[in-house]
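Q: For a teaching session next week I want to show students how multiple molecules come together into a single three-dimensional assembly. I've collected the sequence lines for a complex. Could you give me the predicted structure tokens for the whole thing so I can convert them for display?
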Amino acid sequence: QVQLVQSGAEVKKPGASMKVSCKASGYSFTGYHVHWVRQAPGQGLEWMGWINTDSGVTNYAEKFEGRVKMTTDTSITTTYMELSSLRSDDTAVYYCTSSSGEFDYWGQGTLVTVSS
Amino acid sequence: SYELTQPPSVSVSPGQTARITCSGDALPKKHAYWYQQKSGQAPVLVIYEDRKRPSGIPERFSGSSSGTMATLTISGAQVEDEADYYCYSTDSSPNHKGAFGGGTKLTVL
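A: Of course. Below is the structure for the complete assembly, covering every listed component.
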């Protein structure tokens, strides 16, 4: 079955960087973009961007340009999202999702807490 | 950045019809997607490409789009439909930036 399994929760200091992984299985990995979406505590969903898992081309939300980097390793069907210069308001659950039309699968989410 | 606007809350009694709207300037040209999110869970797609329903989603969920507004309709809402609902779409720029609406809390009681 289709699965997206994310790395575990992290606690980071302000100014540090985070890197969350998302391992896909059960489908043609390079056939679908992987999007990253975050949700701050008690807040709504926020689209961060996507990566074309075949070409590596990325498309980031303007808000995160210069601070986010999405990469992919097709040999292990894993996508990574790295966010730098962390602030307290980056505290959120980060989700990866692979979707196209009806094909729509989400990881379990990774809680990243930014605190001094 | 592109904005999609939803009402913060909608409330209906069980069996009534709930309608949740999503407005955005690019919706005449771009598809809308609707997600249901229950507390502590990942979102679930309930409508894609404006009006299509994924397999496994009850028939009471339907979608429509006209002009700059997309609408999610739940006909005969059930208590278990109580959740947050988000619309998603992309802007009309060549870069196709995505955006979620602010979310609508649906209360069924």
